[in-house]
Amino acid sequence: MEQLKLRIREEGKIRGTNEILKVDSFLNHQMDVAFLGEIGKAFRDRFADCQVDRILTIEASGIAIAYGASQAFGNLPLVFAKKNKTKNIAGDVYISQVESFTQSKRPYNIFVSKDFLHAGEKVLIIDDFLANGSALHALIEIVHQAGAEVVGAGIVIEKAFQSGGELLRKEGVRVESLARIQSMSEETGVVFCE
Amino acid sequence: MEQLKLRIREEGKIRGTNEILKVDSFLNHQMDVAFLGEIGKAFRDRFADCQVDRILTIEASGIAIAYGASQAFGNLPLVFAKKNKTKNIAGDVYISQVESFTQSKRPYNIFVSKDFLHAGEKVLIIDDFLANGSALHALIEIVHQAGAEVVGAGIVIEKAFQSGGELLRKEGVRVESLARIQSMSEETGVVFCE
Questions:
Q1: Full-prediction pTM beyond 0.80?
Q2: Cβ contacts (< 8 Å) between B68 and chain A: which residues?
Q3: In terms of CA atoms, which chain B residue is nearest residue A100?
Q4: In Å, how far are A3, A70, B140 from A178, measured between CA atoms?
Q5: How far apart are the CA of B77 and the nearest CA of chain A, in angstroms?
Q6: Least confidently predicted of A85-94, A146-155, A160-169, B94-103
Q7: Across residues A64-89, what is the average pLDDT?
Q8: Which of A179, A182, B57, B159 makes the best surface tag, with the fewest CB within 10 Å?
Q9: Is the ipTM of this complex over 0.90?
Q10: Do A78 and B102 touch (CB under 8 A)?
């Protein structure tokens, strides 16, 4: 998605070599809602050959992106996996573990209420970043627990220099990333795969 | 908002008396994007007499609601306050403390990057619930730190049996709640204020 690559180039802030890329001016802190609508349409185009019944994402930064995708697919039901168990959540949940590399480096659980993911549903997973793939693996595990089917994963930015995308594709998951980064550093900026 | 009250009556799950109301079938776990669009329009109508430059909310359940509001106001810039400091966030942030009653009962910090909230901006704060008002107070504090102006707070569901809304209105904050709950229990269901 050329418009996305342009914004990453212009607004992305890089720290270190192949480490941190901040795109919080439009994607995951401040959000450009019109642009997220375009991102949603790009996902719809990528998965135009698929039946999709439901969008699944993970809090917090996935939610707005999934909202745009839901609209592009005609207001599909959307559910986000929660990270923290609060007393507001139902007891009956699907649960899986994410190995974290960006927050506390401790693994954490994510869960989805059994009310909002059903056997036989065709689920499109949406997230902002794909790096080592641990969040995506945990989301796929939750879909499988429900007896539902993963249509694929729509990712805004894939850090292709990490192994998550390659591993998932080898496992047969259809991963569609709107921008794939081959390498990045403060000196070279962002180099995209294609 | 009558359609909202209807959905709270039909889908809301109550625990205890004036304690927990779960509306996670459409508002804050599974999300009905078309309905959130209607909620966004209701906020636009309530604040039709105001100039609004920016929408501010708090992760995670505020994000989708704020997205709908941003669209209703013509794709206004949207920023959400973050709860956990990650290494992906900039150093320069506005920060304030929220006293939590629903999670760990420990206070926690929220923050917004100084890049995404500016002096002189007219800010509409959006959130799903208003109960004791601690999250809203913390968001207002952040707007004031930026030298920006709080136009008001658009709340989906106000637990009017708790003191947050009354306190904020006494302090001069314009609070517009789409559904105000006078009381609720498993026996009586939800009783709305008007």
A1: yes
A2: 67
A3: B86
A4: 10, 16, 36
A5: 6
A6: A85-94
A7: 88
A8: A182
A9: yes
A10: no
Asked if B71's CB is within 8 angstroms of A30's CB, the reply is no
Residue type, B170: K
Q: From CA B80, how far away is CA B102, in angstroms rounded? A: 19
Concatenated DSSP letters of A130-185: ESS-HHHHHHHHHHHHTT-EEEEEEEEEEETTSSHHHHHHHTT--EEEEEEEEEEE
Contacts of B61 (CB under 8 A, 6+ apart): B27, B28, B29, B128
Q: Is A122 exposed, middle or buried (0-12, 13-18, 19+ CB in 10 A)?
A: middle
CB B121 within 8 A of CB B154: no
Selecting from A34, A80, A102 the residue whose C-beta is nearest the C-beta of B88 gives: A102
* Residue bearing tokens 């952040």: B142
**Kind of pairing, strands B20-22 and A175-185?**
unpaired
Q: Do B59 and A64 touch (CB under 8 A)?
A: no
From residue A192, give the alpha-carbon distance in Å to each of A2, A99, A178, A182, B35. Answer: 11, 26, 11, 5, 38
Per the listing, tokens 């804050």 go with B28
Q: Please give the average pLDDT of every successive group of 10 residues along chain B, which has 194 residues.
A: 98 95 96 98 98 98 98 98 68 88 76 97 98 97 98 98 97 98 97 92
In chain A, residues with a C-beta closer than 8 Å to the C-beta of B52 are: none
Distance CA B156, CA B39 (A): 8
Helix then strand then coil, in percent of chain B rounded to 5, is 30, 35, 35
Taking the CA atoms of residue B40, residue B45, residue B48 and residue B50 in that order, the dihedral angle to the nearest 10 degrees is -50
Contact A93, A114 (CB under 8 A): yes
Q: Do B99 and B134 touch, CB atoms closer than 8 A?
A: yes
Pairing between β-strand B149-159 and β-strand B175-185 as defined by DSSP bridges = parallel
What per-residue confidence (pLDDT) applies to B62?
98
